[in-house]
Amino acid sequence: STKSSGNSTSDACAEFRVKYVGSIEKLQFDMSKTLQEPLDLINYIDAAQQDGKLPFVPGDEEMVLGVSKYGVKVASVDQCDVLHRHPLYLIVRMLCYDDGLGAGKNLLALKTTDTRQQECSIWVYQCSSSEQAQSICKVLSASFDCVLTSEK
Amino acid sequence: IYKSAVTTVVNPKYEGK
Fold it and tell me: How far apart are CA A89 and CA B13, in angstroms?
């Protein structure tokens, strides 16, 4: 069973059960500039869902999303296969908001870039509740701080 | 679709990008 490694602030690291909605990859840099404001990003995801580029609801399979100072890792529940690995230094921002479908589910949008910062990608996951989404944001924010302080 | 509170976490490395 996946043991949650607690949340000692010095080394923030935690695992969460989420579902994968979909992703929009390799957006050109000028496109990514229009996606800086949270509401622009949300509207972009909405539009992608309307256009069928992103589903409205995720697949049934639950996944384990791990957040640590190394970044975000998404693996199958039995942790046998890793689906996504987002290194912390390539994560631009993370956004969480109610999906508006009335079931209290929260969407998590992760904006990542490539090493040359020419393109960006949007990864969308669904959390079971806003509390879960908030704690994911907290651990990620702690991870950024942890890396920032260690760089000084 | 009505969007309630939005929480954002920005990587300090990309502040303003």
Answer: 8
Contact assignment for A96 to B6 by CB distance below 8 Å: yes
Tens of pLDDT along chain A (152 residues) come to 445 554 444 567 899 999 999 999 999 878 878 888 899 999 999 999 999 999 999 999 999 999 999 999 999 999 899 999 999 999 999 999 998 888 889 999 999 999 998 899 999 999 999 999 999 999 999 999 998 888 76
Q: What are the C-alpha distances in Å from A112 to residues A4, A5, A83, A85, B11?
A: 25, 25, 15, 11, 10
- Asked whether the beta carbons of residue A144 and residue B12 sit closer than 8 angstroms, the reply is yes
Task: Mention every residue, 6+ apart, whose C-beta is less than 8 A from residue A81.
Answer: A75
Chain A residues within an 8 Å CB radius of B4? 97-98, 100
Q: Which residue of A has its CA nearest to B15?
A: A92
Distance CA A97, CA A123 (A): 14
Q: Is the ipTM above a cut-off of 0.90?
A: no
Q: Does B15 touch chain A (CB under 8 A)?
A: no
Largest alpha-carbon pair distance within chain A?
45
Closest-CA residue of A relative to B9 is A94
